[in-house]
Amino acid sequence: MLKTLLLNPPSFEKFDGGASSRWPATREIESYWYPVWLAYPSALIRDLGGQSRLLDAPPHHISPEETAQIAIDYDFVVLFTSHVGFKNDVKLSERMKELNPDLKIAFAGPPVTTHPEQALRASSAIDFVTHKEFDYAITRFAGGESIEKIPGVHFIKDGRMVSTPPEPLITDLDRLPWVTPIYKRDLDIRRYNVPFLMHPFIAFYSTRGCPALCTFCLWPQTFDDHRWRQRSVVDVCNEVEWALDAFKPEGLQEIFFDDDTFTFNPNRMIEMSKAFKPLKFQWSSTSRAHLEYETLKVMRDAGCRLFIVGFESGNEQILKNIKKGLSAKRGLQFVKDCKRAGIKVHADFIIGLPGETRETIRETIEYAKEMDPETLQVSVAHAYPGTEMYEWFKANGVFLNSTMSDELGQQLPMANFPHLPAAEMLDWVHRFYDEYYFRPKVVIRIVKDAVFKSSERKRLYKEAKEYLATRARRREIVRTGQV
User: Fold this and answer.
1) Which terminal residue of the chain has fewer beta carbons within 10 Å of its beta carbon, N or C?
2) Which CATH superfamily is domain 194-479 in?
3) What is the pTM (predicted TM-score) of this model?
4) Is the dihedral of CA 289, 291, 297, 303 positive or negative?
């Protein structure tokens, strides 16, 4: 078998790339998600007796040149790319090929799924690209199969792109190996910090796909599909139990279920909670704002601590425009019920969605204040190629640019509405954060949480410095007219 390096590549400083990040970008506060997608083929290759390594360069602060030097010892590199980091990833691939001309390189991820020929033509260093889920395609190539016989790949032959028919989506997820043993072997979990999660934490999936139809969402539209596929409760619990024991020496504090929507089926949540309860551990997850109080209470009693929820906007028409499938009113009730049950909420909002105006932004800010989640994140709207919102941006002629970021990897507005210029949208992001976080009740809440834990005090101080530095850079971008 080919000695295989599964690579989440280095890119911009503090850049959380494509290997599982929901929103590939440089973060206001340095934080990293686990490269779950790469861990699956790494484990499959291991199980077949091959040699594999999962290299997550960003959180381990491995430079591009260090990465290229590491790749010298491998036969095959699988690089998970992102729209924002693609150009840097191409440069890195060319450097790896320069040092190791016999190296085979495959790119995976949404950009190569939606535009395979464009990706292949970007550089001869890329031998092939994959289509959507790539677990078995990568494993088969690593096992020595001819590229022509492997389903779901694209490559150049005789100057033309050849595409093999993709296999059906994996439905029996219990057949896949666990990713946590790969984390234990290859990653340092203390390197993964997310401000609203306990530290250290680990993250993995219990499902794939998302039945929700949000027009802006990258993953189900370009990668893991809208068809919701579930692991059995028993399989998830067995991996949890293994991980709790394996990562005890590292001081594991929390498990995060990073599914597109972990809580989609309330009945499954009740069954999962009953299985989790005897394990007596703390966990958090993604969620939609649809669960009732009775379900939330069962989950809290089983160790659920926090949900990440995309509310996006406080304006009902915008929510309809993006096919959110839930109302702003329902969002308020959900957070109210979470507080009553004792579950914290980290809320995500987006500025610049179809229908956005100054008035709707103000409405969303006031909505967030009324909701009062524990923490929140505010982003500018990114219309990723392959999404329904990308087509809306094109049809309505509002594209400002398609670069998505500046030279540091920081998010930039892609839309320039006639009534709401891009620079103003970026300024609204700052105002949103300032108005929300500099309220006395929020300051008191944050400080109170840090008072009794020295580790939390240190983390809070570091994160505050990073946030203020990023805030200053973004204000400079607006002031100098770079958008």
Assistant:
1) N
2) Aldolase class I (3.20.20.70)
3) 0.92
4) negative
